[in-house]
Amino acid sequence: MSKQEPMVRLEDTTVQDNTMQNKTVPSQQVQQLHYRIDTENCLSHTWYKPVFSVIGSNQHNGERFFNEIRKPQGRSRWDLMKWLGTRKSYTWNVDTQKESSEFYAAKRVLPQNRPDADEHDWQIWFVSHATVLVQIGPYNFLTDPVWADYVSPKHGRGPKRVIPAGIALEQLPEIHAVLLSHNHYDHMDLASLRWLHNKFAMPIYTGLGNACYLPKEFHVIEMDWWQSALFKNLKIIYTPAQHGSGRGLRDQNIALWGGFSVVSQHGHFFFAGDTGYSPHFKEIQKRLGSPRIALLPIGAYEPRALMKYMHMNPQDAFQAHLDLQAKRSLAIHYRTFQLTDEAREQPEQDLQKAMKNSSKMVNPFYCIREGRKLVV
After folding, report:
1. Which CATH superfamily is domain 13-41+94-375 in?
2. What is the pLDDT of residues 192-242, one digit of tens each?
3. What DSSP assignment string belongs to 233-250?
4. pTM
5. Least C-beta-crowded within 10 Å: which of 16, 85, 103, 257?
6. Which residues, in sequence order, are bridge partners of residue 331?
């Protein structure tokens, strides 16, 4: 492994493609592009309980899916509801107008279609939250695409976006597939999926049961943990995660949650989805080898007693990075929506501390800003 390196979080030339000229998007064009869109009304999901058959899954008890490690006794669902009902939801104090103005004024490289790119040529673009554009040679994947302003069943309610997505929908290259980890509102965004379907009609890979929440015209491929599907020369594998699912009061853990590995002859990239820390990271490394890059969530972890089982904190994410023996990792699931109580910059700061306090020689764990990319 290489000597411990600091996190990269800004315009470092080592993570940009210098063969392309930086472009500033004119202000009049910004108004025509969709860096954020209205949330689609899906209030019916709050009372929906899908009914479908699950055959042969080791993670299903006949009624609901479950994690490999059961939730420890202690904090109850009532404790979570009490916290949700009494917490202060907006404590980040972000000047969203100032951040948006600075974002639109910045020079950025835009992703391109690359039909002739070699499959060894990988580019990873951080869009925002858990949305990442992964370019493996000529193929373009999107993880958990969310361009919505609010991650909730109704526009104007719930956690609000504080910074535009790093790439406008119209600036995307052709999307060949979407990797949809699970159905929580900050990961399954119907408005964004509908826009993408109307433009690209791409397949959506996801866990068992999630098609019930999506329009019938979508091309959805459901998978159990460790199931795989071939895509061109690549293999898409749905991997375990320690989390849960549900979009309402009656459908908790009815559909499956997970992450993804996309395996090629030049390595594999790993997307953890949303997860707490558990031994599944070591199992993924044992089965698939060390990822060429791992996308690991570092946010939404306070109060710790309530969040620990379902959300990693930066120390956990750093341990997952080590367990996977990832050649490099990219931080996701922070900065965009205030879901929990930690400060906006705290995940980066805590990750920096975790890396600094490590006695091991480690590969890099990057934090980059929205719209920036890594060449891996």
Report:
1. Ribonuclease Z/Hydroxyacylglutathione hydrolase-like (3.60.15.10)
2. 999 999 999 999 999 999 999 999 999 999 999 999 999 999 999 999 999
3. TEEEEEE--B----SSSS
4. 0.91
5. 85
6. 296
